[in-house]
Specification:
heterodimer, A: 343 residues, mainly alpha, 14 helices, B: alpha/beta, six-stranded mixed sheet, 32% helix
């Protein structure tokens, strides 16, 4: 029973958000139960719906893990968006350049590694600035989001297909297989092998945090830098490494989109998954398992938004997401305080 | 303003304060369990007990900060109900907290009259305020310049301001919470003189403390609390330190540490001409040289803020030295990282448990490997060895009597004393060649103090060098084989415990005497 207590605040956040959402649905003259019912059956009523949820949850797992890893080290990485863009851009450009010159597997591997390395290096910048000069990572990661967008615009001229905003398309042989290829009911949904990469990333982050000396030091740094330093941890080095890992995880978003879905990098394709990663990390309580659940929830919410598009304004889904985030933050504190007093 | 000094107190005078059968619970915790306390008017009454014995709760009930679940409060014979500290103040009660509540940039007179400022028309009547404060301080022998700024006063002087503040508000019953914790022996003498003068003028003083020798010196009557109940009440004249200690702890306590003569060997630590700057960039340690030999305890005395913290940080690698040299067992480590020093045989009980010593959200087992997370047997290859960590926890928690000994419990759920035992246990289990122990018994119960002291001596006898920094002079005198005093970052004297006493050390500590 006690072990389940950490689940209470996020569940409270979800329920409260749906309740407040119901008020909005009533306000636009619809029946909340009908709308939520349509949403649920549209999302979970078919294999295709499930596939869409999994596809949308995949990048959120990556960015959620990225932000959570930062949190664990005491860092607030608001730059997952920019890191994901930079990594994916390099992934697309390198893949396109390599595609005519190498076999598909090599193209995928090299592109993925190059993209992830770019994300890591890009995120390491605010890490180094903090370690060397004490510059706050919140400000620097925000600013670097703009820098990333500008850099991609600039270099995009060279990398994009003429008169488009995307890189050349990869041949099918240089792309990850879709799950629909093995299990026909999923056909039509772009959910692909990177789903398993996301699961792998969760396990890897969990093992890193709780089973290695580096993870011990990383969490110690986030909890109490003074004590970590006392215990022989080089705190600034942990900051740099944690930021780099965070950026690497963010860049994995590109594996799902570039290598798994479109076959090319497209300007601004991330459309906020980096920022939504913050919400996923918070709602998932910075735990890999929680992040999976939170990512699935946000994935379902976004897919459900498409289903009920004809019944209520599309903005309603955005409002629901925002409320969940607010509730996640508020309930974190209040519910926990209440539990401590009464349990 | 206070009434003029009342002469003698007759036998018929009702008790200044009476608490009858007070019970106060917090959830399942019974902090006060039917506690009764009667304080004679015009007396100094000491309230002693270990951490968590319920003294602070009782005083907070008396001062209106807590409402009791049941029980009665009487002030000068009349039943009182305090809904807030304001009610208590109006009834003539005043409390001097351990942490002063003064406005640093304001003057003494401004602080004392704050909230009840004398006015001249719309403006603050500075002249009158200063005059009133001066009169008050003369009457009670609390020497203080009303025009001085708080930030320029010593800790002892600030405490005097706090006492004057309560007197200015008309308090006739003063509650002092651990008032001597931050004072030098000379300042303690002065405080006690003030308390006696208050008593002689008919005021009542309640003294919360855990220092039994001071209880014997200053109080008329003493109440001992243990486990939320009154464990005994004595006329001070008719009791003794061992009796009080036994009542406090619930078993006989060995107050005098038994230790064999030290057998110093080769130097474990050599510090040569060390200079260190503090956070503000000011020189905090000035040209300090010292040596700790294996098998001896070197004590460092000094008023806090005279370079002890910076010296320790420079030795342990948490702060860079500006010049000088540090060597551990003959190996230079002046520029080594904290991890390298730990691996070279350094163990360190840090002064501030919360900001350095523990990871509050980590469980006991993980806290017990802090500093060794990359060393065998806790790390094997790239992985932590959970079995080794658990086994180490079970063993260490038992050996150092940490309660409750649950390896998977978060360390924040432990009491302060048990957290400290955990830190001490962790560092001693390193079996290093040098132990740097800063305030190893701060905030720890009498029983645990005895335990930690014995362990420190055992560490010495095992052949480690021990560098001990403490603000408790009695602790330094009983544990150290040699002693140095730091004043303004310099070593002003080196001596032996048998050649000195608290009073003499106090003079060195305040710079009034140099060797």
């Amino acid at each position: 029973m006690k072990r389940l207590l950490p689940l209470v605040p996020p569940l409270f956040a979800v329920v409260a958000a749906l309740a407040v959402g119901a008020l909005f649905i009533l306000a636009v003259g619809q029946d909340p139960l009908t709308v939520y019912g349509a949403m649920a059956s549209g999302v979970f009523g078919s294999a295709y719906g499930w596939g869409q949820v999994l596809f949308k949850a995949t990048p959120l797992v990556f960015t959620g893990l990225a932000v959570a890893l930062g949190f664990r080290a005491g860092l607030f990485n608001i730059g997952a968006e920019g890191q994901a863009l930079m990594g994916s851009f390099v992934m697309g450009a390198v893949g396109a350049w390599l595609a005519p010159r190498a076999p598909g597997v090599v193209v995928m591997l090299v592109a993925a590694v190059a993209g992830v390395a770019t994300g890591a290096a890009y995120a390491a910048i605010p890490g180094v600035l903090k370690a060397r000069f004490g510059a706050h990572e919140v400000i620097n990661t925000i600013m670097l989001n703009f820098v990333a967008a500008a850099l991609i615009n600039y270099f995009g001229h060279a990398a994009y297909v003429h008169e488009t905003v995307h890189t050349p398309e990869l041949p099918p042989g240089a792309m990850l297989a879709r799950l629909g290829a093995w299990w026909p009911p999923l056909a039509g949904s772009p959910v692909n092998l990177s789903l398993f990469l996301a699961a792998l990333a969760c396990v890897a982050v969990g093992l890193l945090l709780w089973r290695t000396p580096f993870g011990y030091e990383l969490r110690a740094t986030g909890m109490n830098p003074g004590a970590a330093e006392y215990g022989g941890t080089r705190v600034p080095a942990v900051w740099v490494k944690a930021m780099a890992l965070s950026g690497a995880l963010s860049a994995l978003v590109g594996v799902n989109f570039v290598l798994g879905y479109k076959g090319y990098f497209e300007s601004n394709f991330t459309s906020g998954v980096g920022f939504l990663g913050i919400a996923v990390a918070l709602l998932g309580r910075t735990h890999p398992l929680g992040i999976v659940i939170a990512a699935l929830f946000f994935g379902a919410l976004s897919q459900g938004g498409l289903v009920i598009n004809s019944m209520v304004p599309k903005e309603l889904v955005d409002i629901l997401q925002a409320i969940v985030i607010l509730m996640a933050i508020v309930s974190h504190e209040t519910v926990e305080r209440w539990l401590r007093r009464h349990a | 303003m206070t009434a003029p000094a009342t002469p003698s107190v007759t036998a018929k005078t009702p008790p200044a304060v009476e608490l009858v059968d007070i019970t106060k619970t917090f959830g399942r915790l019974v902090a006060n369990d039917g506690v009764s306390l009667s304080v004679r008017s015009g007396s100094i009454h000491a309230l002693v007990g270990e951490n968590g014995a319920g003294k602070t709760t009782l005083m907070k009930v008396l001062f209106g900060l807590y409402q009791p679940d049941s029980g009665t409060l009487r002030v000068r014979g009349e039943v009182a109900r305090f809904r807030s500290p304001l009610d208590a103040l109006n009834a003539g009660l005043g409390m001097v907290h351990q942490h002063f509540m003064l406005v640093a940039p304001l003057t003494v007179a401004e602080n004392i009259t704050l909230g009840r400022e004398p006015r001249a028309g719309l403006s603050y009547d500075r002249r009158r305020a200063e005059r009133e404060v001066e009169e008050l301080s003369r009457r009670y022998g609390l020497r203080i310049d009303p025009r001085a700024k708080i930030e320029n006063l010593s800790v002892g002087e600030q405490q005097r301001v706090e006492i004057l503040k309560t007197l200015y508000r008309g308090a006739r019953v003063l509650i002092l919470d651990e008032p001597t914790a931050v004072l030098t022996p000379q300042e303690v003498d002065e405080l006690f003189a003030v308390l006696r003068s208050l008593r002689d003028q008919g005021d009542t003083v309640i003294l919360i403390t855990h220092k039994l020798r001071e209880v014997m010196e200053i109080s008329d009557r003493v109440t001992v609390m243990r486990g939320g109940q009154v464990a005994g009440e004595f006329e001070t004249r008719a009791t003794s330190v061992p009796e009080l200690a036994e009542k406090m702890v619930g078993r006989p306590v060995l107050l005098e540490l038994e230790k064999a003569a030290a057998r110093p060997a080769a130097p474990a630590l050599e510090v040569t001409a060390l200079c260190v700057r503090d956070d503000r960039g000011l020189e905090a340690v000035r040209d300090v040289s010292l040596a700790v030999r294996a098998g001896e305890v070197l004590g460092i005395a000094g008023v806090e803020g005279n370079g002890q913290a910076e010296l320790i940080e420079a030795i342990t690698g948490l702060r860079a030295a500006t010049s000088g040299r540090v060597a551990l067992s003959g190996r230079e480590i002046t520029r080594a990282t904290p991890l390298e020093r730990l691996r070279a045989g350094l163990a360190h009980v840090p002064a501030d448990r919360l900001s350095r010593g523990i990871l509050a959200e980590y469980d006991l087992a993980d806290n017990l490997i802090l500093g060794r997370q990359r060393d065998r047997p806790f790390a094997k290859g790239a992985w932590l060895d959970r079995h080794a960590i658990h086994a180490h926890a079970v063993e260490t928690l038992a050996a150092y009597d940490v309660r409750p000994p649950i390896p998977s419990a978060p360390v924040r759920t432990l009491s302060g004393g048990n957290q400290q035992k955990l830190v001490v246990g962790r560092e001693l289990s390193r079996k290093g060649s040098l132990l740097v122990a800063a305030h190893p018994t701060r905030g720890v119960d009498l029983g645990a103090i005895e335990f930690i002291h014995r362990r420190l001596i055992a560490e010495r006898d095992r052949g480690a060098g021990v560098l001990l920094v403490s603000s408790e002079l009695s602790e330094l005198l009983s544990l150290s084989d040699r002693l140095i005093v730091l004043y303004e970052g310099r070593v002003v004297v080196e001596t032996r415990p048998e050649d000195t006493d608290e009073r003499a050390l106090g003079l060195f500590m305040t710079g009034q005497q140099t060797a």
